[in-house]
Amino acid sequence: MSDWFTGSATLVTAVVAISLYYLEKWSKKKNAARIILQEIRRAEDIISSYKEFKQYRFTKKIIATNSWGANIHYFVTDLSQDSRDRISDLYSTGAYLDSLISSIADYNFKKGTEVVDTIQQQLQVQTQQPATAQQNNGSAQIVQVQIPAPWKDIFDDISLNYEPIYNTTVCQKLKHIAQIK
To answer: CA 101, CA 125: separation in Å to the nearest integer?
Structure first.
């Protein structure tokens, strides 16, 4: 009787341990799907905003975190190759746009500091010039020429041609896994 009880207890313990393992794995998969869907929705909202207003805000990252890259292994058997590729394309496109936006912000910051430096140098020169020379300089006209930003075409090409996936069959399976209606 004692051997039967020990064997049964071992079997029950094994079943409980295996059940807990799969329950935890399912929970991680469900939470990963929810986070990925949130990231997809957010990225598509930002890209959609660009389509409407023709500008990206430097304060918003398109791909704040790459949960897809960290959790794709959960969905290899659930999602088709095409679905995985479309999600991966969104993440890589968002990361590329984020890198462009960051580069532009750095460029604009550098350009802004150069303008401030130039103004400060001009003010120093003007205060050192005689009064008659300053009066002559005041009559000069400043001509500004607007040159279109070279990155505008890149943003337009990528963003205006992007086809959203959140409300398509690509994300339907993720929504099912995440238990989102």
So the answer is: 36
Give the CA dihedral 103, 106, 112, 116, nearest 10 degrees: -150
pLDDT digits (tens, 9 = 90+) for 120-151: 666 666 666 655 544 545 544 554 545 567 78
Residue 180: how many CB atoms within 10 A of its CB?
13
Q: How many CB atoms lie within 10 A of CB 108?
A: 12
Q: For residue 145, give both structure tokens.
A: 């020429």
Residue linked to tokens 């794995």:
25
Confidence (pTM): 0.74
- Report d(CA 142, CA 135) in Å as an integer: 15
List of residues 6+ apart from 67 with CB closer than 8 A:
32, 35, 36, 39
Cβ contact 159:47 at 8 Å? yes
CA–CA separation, 172 vs 178, rounded Å?
Answer: 10
List, for residues 11-65, the tens digit of each pLDDT value.
888 888 888 888 898 999 999 999 999 999 999 999 999 999 988 887 889 998 9
